[in-house]
Design a protein that fits this description.
The protein is an alpha/beta fold. The protein has eight helices and nine strands. It has one domain: 3-Layer(aba) Sandwich (Rossmann fold), CATH 3.40.50.300.
Length: 228
């Protein structure tokens, strides 16, 4: 069973999808076979591109799947309730991840923060726990903002993951400004102290608009691939 990497954020809009694409590029460059899972995609209609499509645009064509797609840009369980949709169960999502992990390096991108429910009454931590229970190695990457306020949010997110006995490889700053202010410059040094895990990447602001070629060329300088 290959390792399963979970990508979560300190909040919504922190750059999880771009970070997921960068991790996929890094894994493939290292000789792996990335497979991206989005358990719940919200805020898109059936014919609109979602986060998995964006990962493929940046990282190139790679296998993956969405668990469910919902129209409203809300937490998945809320969006599903408003739409009258039954979310896939925890066992169903787990089995899909484990099946992919038989042959691929699975990267699971969450929705919003780590405690947001991606199913009915279960979140990304519950999914990771049940994957571990079925003997697949699991690790987390936390994507954080660069600026003021990120220290507390990042520390709380790492703490919540570790309280469940799960491993955190490190923090990725999802959008590093071209001209960082004083808070951002100091945060990159203070994040390891506050969270107890290293900063393993800084993805430049605007990288999500790069071509696939530009993106692939930049990844080695932005990101340190988590070890298994």
């Amino acid at each position: 069973m290959r390792p399963v990497l979970f990508v979560t954020g300190t909040d919504t809009g922190v750059g999880k999808t771009v970070a997921t694409a960068a991790l996929a590029v890094a894994r493939r460059t290292a000789g792996g076979s990335p497979y991206v899972v989005k358990p719940a995609q919200t805020g898109v209609s059936p014919d609109e591109p979602g986060d998995l499509d964006e990962v493929r645009r940046l990282a190139g064509d790679l296998p993956g799947h969405e668990g469910v797609r919902l129209r409203e840009p809300l937490a998945p369980d809320t969006a599903a309730r408003l739409e009258g949709v039954t979310l896939p169960g925890l066992a169903e999502q787990r089995d899909a991840v484990l099946a992919a992990a038989e042959e691929h390096d699975v990267i699971v991108e969450g929705a919003g923060g780590v405690l947001v429910c991606v199913g009915e009454h279960w979140n990304l931590l519950d999914l990771a726990e049940t994957v571990v229970y079925h003997r697949a190695p699991v690790g987390f990457v936390v994507v954080a903002r660069a600026g003021l306020g990120t220290l507390n949010h990042a520390a709380l997110t790492v703490w919540a993951i570790q309280q469940r006995g799960l491993h955190v490889h490190g923090v990725v700053i999802g959008s590093w400004p071209e001209k960082p202010d004083l808070a951002a410059e100091q945060n990159r040094f203070d994040l390891p102290t506050m969270t107890g895990v290293p900063v393993i990447g800084r993805i430049p602001e605007g990288a999500g608009a790069f071509s696939a070629e530009e993106f692939a060329a930049g990844v080695p300088g932005w990101l340190l691939l988590p070890s298994d």
